[in-house]
Design goal:
Four copies of one chain form a homotetramer. The first copy, chain A, has seven helices and seven strands; from the N terminus they run αββββαβαααββαα. Chain A is of the alpha+beta class and 230 residues long. Chain A has one domain: L-fuculose-1-phosphate Aldolase (3-Layer(aba) Sandwich). Chain A has a seven-stranded antiparallel beta sheet with strand order 4-3-2-1-5-7-6, sandwiched between helices. In chain A, a hairpin with a 4-residue loop joins strand 3 and strand 4. In chain A, helix 1 packs parallel to helix 6 and helix 3 crosses helix 6. Chain A is globular. The two termini of chain A are 33 Å apart. Chains C and D meet through helix 6 and helix 7 of C and helix 3, helix 5 and helix 6 of D. Chains A, B, C, D: Keywords: Arabinose catabolism, Carbohydrate metabolism, Isomerase, Metal-binding, Zinc.
Chain lengths: 230, 230, 230, 230
């Protein structure tokens, strides 16, 4: 069942280690199969080194376990909210990667300071508002999804393929689990360089609209010309 | 004698290298066997690469060597004080890991700025007061234990599983040598991200009590639901 | 055709990974053969791991593809402008390396703060002016070359073998593809140390002219005495 | 001739790479044999990867080459000055290691902010004065030794086993080439942590005299008790 997607989700989880995005078990990747309406996600607290395709958990969008002997990631309700809201995305990553988390802890959005950012994010990487005590105490992981959705609003999530959850850390997403991990790596690199840019020039402004358009649109959209598949 | 504990202490010491917590011989791990009242600790100044199970030193809580041909870690008296005071802990780590030591040198506690911290430490990671000249000159390593104990006070050491010794570096502890090293890694990650958060927002405040409760208690205590063993 | 140059360009592209200058496909190296007037460059968006000598693209200085089945790097027009203007150089590198890009995003030139810098760059590493909306919208990659050329002016490009493109990232160059990568590594190291020097001393001044002369000229020029080939 | 010392110097040079202290050929180690009055040093500009025992150069204290087909390190005159002045040392290292060089570029001594520093350096790690134009232009590498000697003054160089050359980078030394590299690693770690401590607390003061004494003297001198050989 969902053998191809499971292989992708397994690989994407292991890639979190390869790209230096996780310490211990601090992260998880899921993938969504729009045909069957099922998601595949990492089990909770299982180390990446020993993670096996049989450990993955299959759920429906209501969170019912369809296959798997282990408990799914404790962040599963956040993933479910995002898949339900955004039909464009089929992969989600959550980590506590060090640079993005530093921004999330500071409660600050990452402004567009250069073309690396503009190549992937069509504007600031937003930071969610703080959650209320009620949201935290009632259904914390589900409400984490809610504040992300609130912050993205009407924007196309593939144009802003990641976000900082206030006081917590980054979520990133994409057209597939692999693409979601790719965007998580970009977010981390952008967070690192933006912090250093600020230390050099605390008054730095966002890049011009024309440069943002140029870089984002040469990689994405109808007139894209970067890479071999355009 | 204590074969299982020795194996754990050996592995835990070698894990300091794996996790990037030590330069040269700047660190040590011990384990405590509550049944026999004996501790196993790294010898002083021996490189991790060649460290062998036969090099480990066994002592009683009064510091008498029960087994071993080498001198125990010079920090042994600190370990003894902590085991005597805190029956909850059976593993202790000391390192000069770079980020935690930077905070210790600054003489500052690490405030709870995010959920990574809250997942393991149920409040600030405290920094001890400076030691007096008398304490330093009389029985320095024993008094290092004293100031740690003074700072922890009536708190449960498993809820604050690590501390910064002022002008020196971190100690961490746990239910086992492995768990102590795990907490030392967490302390280091948290120290790193907190420093960067401060550089982005020097006026950042601690996270809300409800978020601290949520994260610490979903991993620890009776209502924990993170991982596979809850 | 151009077998030796292709081998050098392939190796130089793979060295970007070895030296930690690139994430994903964020970089490219080209080489120029002055005899034939042809350049060899990395194809667009192809990963370094699988990059093969047959993937490389050969173009003339007008940008006409002479050999190769893949699209050349999207930054090719920048490379062409530089080869046309500067007969001294036969290798060009572009990356988004993290420290140099942080300076580029800050819009700041890197002043000569020490001898590491002076060993390779005979003055500040300049940052280009921002490009106009017209330049960005008309022929962006070509105009990137224009602003670099404008900034270098009458200086010898081998005495300033790299530059920061404002809001974007570094370009470096040299007598060969290998030499260009060497200079890109130097630029990155210098950018890293200069940022930290500023954090220690925001009022630091450039080194004295005599020290700059001494270090640059003991490695370069007629009276050079560093290394075995002088 | 000097086979044992050559082996030590070769290993010490290669250890610069192992410990992450060098980029390209930016460093050199020498060793001194007090019996014969000869020094063994790395040749100039030769990569560490291919460095062979036959490449090493043997010189007397006047700089005359006694053995070897290659040119010695361009920094040889600095090494010679230090060996002539300080009979206590038999190994010298020079690098452009990133953290120590950042302090050297800032023109600042590294104050004793913690016990890691105090374990090896019995006081601040000094930064030399700037060299005069005359010193730079006349015999630069020899005068680099002079300003180091001037700064150390009457202090025991084994109690301050390293220094920052203003606008340049670190030199470290010790009882042997291996010990000199050890001290160069310590200097780099201490420089890194001190910079971060300053970023957390710009008003931090040196540690107390009693703590400095305790740590330095428990590792060094007659009453030392750290390690297995005391």
């Amino acid at each position: 069942m969902l053998g191809q997607l499971k292989a992708e989700v397994l690989q994407a989880n292991k890639d979190l280690v390869k790209y230096g995005l996780v310490t211990f078990t601090w992260g998880n990747v899921s993938g969504f199969d729009r045909n069957s309406g099922l998601i595949v996600i990492k089990p909770s607290g299982v180390p990446y080194e020993t993670l096996n395709i049989k450990d993955l958990v299959v759920l429906d969008l209501d969170g019912n376990i369809v296959e798997g002997n282990l408990k799914p990631s404790s962040d599963t309700p956040t993933h479910l909210e995002l898949y339900k809201r955004f039909p464009q995305i089929s992969g989600i990553v959550h980590t506590h990667s060090e640079w993005a988390t530093s921004w999330a802890q500071a409660g600050k959005s990452i402004p567009v300071l250069g073309t690396t950012h503009a190549d992937y994010f069509y504007g600031d990487i937003p930071c969610t508002r703080k959650m209320t005590t009620f949201e935290i105490e009632q259904s914390y992981e589900k409400e984490t999804g809610t504040v992300i959705i609130e912050e993205i609003g009407d924007r196309d999530p593939l144009k802003i393929p990641g976000i900082l959850v206030n006081s917590h850390g980054p979520f990133a997403w994409g057209k597939s689990p692999e693409n979601a991990v790719h965007n998580a790596v970009v977010l981390e690199e952008v967070a690192k360089m933006a912090l250093r840019t600020y230390s050099l020039n605390p008054n730095i402004k966002n890049i011009e609209r024309s440069l943002l358009d140029k870089h984002f649109l040469r990689k994405h959209g109808e007139a894209a010309y970067y890479g071999q598949n355009q």
